[in-house]
Specification:
Elements lengths: L1 E10 L2 E10 L3 E5 L6 H9 L6 E6 L2 E5 L4 E2 L7 E4 L11 H11 L4 H14 L15 H14 L4 E5 L7 H17 L3 E6 L2 H7 L2 E6 L2 E6 L1 H6 L4 H7 L2 E8 L2 E4 L4 E3 L7 E7 L5 E3 L9 E13 L2 E8 L3 E6 H7 L6 E6 L5 E4 L1
Parallel strand pairs: 3-9, 3-10, 7-8, 8-9
Antiparallel strand pairs: 1-2, 1-4, 4-5, 5-6, 10-11, 12-13, 12-15, 13-14, 15-21, 16-20, 17-18, 17-20, 18-19
Helix pairs in contact: 2-3, 2-4, 3-4
């Protein structure tokens, strides 16, 4: 089984132009900021909207082709869709919600309810078959929505932010459970998320969508190691710079320079620096750091026992320090500081 889609669509201010492909043996996450086009991609694949240009081919069967005038309506597509807010019918029981997809495809009521009961048992909700959605927890509602999508035996499963409606305490357990269910599904799986943890733990491959375009594609480790946009760099917690390298120096597009250790690289490059490699001083440092700039702390976030300190100056940076160091140095918004990076701590690659 495989999915081959070229999706071009104009939806309000969004100009989507993206190619999406997936094989049956992988889970593909579509990651991106709000308004980038993630949900629009799922709606086009599900047939809730036709492509303006392009095509959708699933297992060699054309579901949508603008040039040929082919369009298969949603109810006739072998597609299961788990919506962000689950969209369970409030007046139906959990059992009848799961049976609904089967009934809409022509199954008899008794047959549909039998299959639905089996799926509720698979997701651990056999004892909640008679419960209405309002009587279910967020995690239980998510499992009912997943069972409803899987009960029709789709060849393409679409999940739109499936964990977004859950609170933080429930998300970890449901993430592991979702991974287990996805591993047993025999079709193509696409997961939309804005959470890098979901992408890292659930997906085999990641597509990053920004402004309607695919900006990155690869494993989460690959896009984390070599980000090519500020969004991805911020997502994975790296400082990203772009500029032109020459003579062990990068002249930055945003102004300023970075001294680097590699004397051979030339031309347009990206440079990334881990926040842990950024040192913060209350006075101008002396010694080995070739890169040092004055600046002002604009913001800081506490993450576990670490503090992420944002410094605005000649070269804006995010530094990571311990809470003890932050207290000892008196780091707080408005404080004037110096930031420094060793040339050997800068990873440089071609743009």
């Amino acid at each position: 089984m495989s999915l081959d889609a070229v999706l071009r669509s104009h939806v309000g201010p969004l100009d989507l132009d993206a190619e999406v492909s997936a094989d049956v043996d992988e889970i593909v996450a579509i990651l991106g900021p709000n308004g980038a086009g993630k949900t629009t991609i799922l709606r086009l694949l599900a047939g809730l909207r036709a492509v303006d240009e392009g095509h959708v081919v699933l297992d060699g069967t054309s579901l949508d082709d603008a040039a040929l005038g082919t369009f298969v309506v949603p109810e006739r597509r072998p597609v299961g869709f788990v919506f962000q807010d689950y969209l369970l019918f409030p007046y139906l029981s959990a059992l009848d919600n799961v049976a609904f997809g089967l009934r809409s495809r022509g199954a008899r009521k008794r047959e549909a309810r039998t299959v639905a009961h089996d799926w509720l048992a698979r997701v651990g909700l056999e004892d909640r078959a008679d419960a209405k959605p309002a009587e279910l927890s967020g995690g239980q509602a998510q499992r009912v929505a997943l069972a409803r999508a899987l009960a029709t035996e789709p060849r393409l499963l679409l999940l739109d932010e499936p964990l977004a409606a859950l609170d933080a305490s429930a998300r970890g357990g449901m993430r592991r459970e979702l991974r287990r269910h996805l591993a047993t599904f025999g079709g193509v799986r696409l997961l939309v998320t804005h959470d890098p943890v979901d992408a890292a733990t659930l997906a085999d491959r990641v597509l990053v969508i920004e402004d309607g375009r695919v900006s990155h594609a690869g494993t989460f480790a690959e896009i984390s190691a070599h980000p090519r946009s500020p969004y991805v760099a911020d997502l994975v917690g790296l400082n990203l710079f772009r500029g032109r390298a020459h003579d062990a120096t990068i002249t930055l597009d945003r102004g300023g320079e970075l001294a680097i250790a590699d004397t051979t690289i030339r031309g347009e490059v990206y440079a990334v620096v881990s926040p842990r490699a950024v040192a913060v001083y209350t006075e101008e440092p002396h010694g080995s750091p070739r890169n040092r700039w004055p600046g002002t702390i604009t913001d800081q976030d506490v993450v576990g026992d670490r503090v992420w300190v944002r410094v605005d100056g000649g070269v804006p940076l995010v530094a990571e320090v311990t809470q003890a160091a932050a207290r000892e140095l008196g780091l707080e918004p408005g404080r004037r500081v110096w930031s420094a990076i060793k040339a050997t701590e800068i990873d440089v690659y071609e743009a």
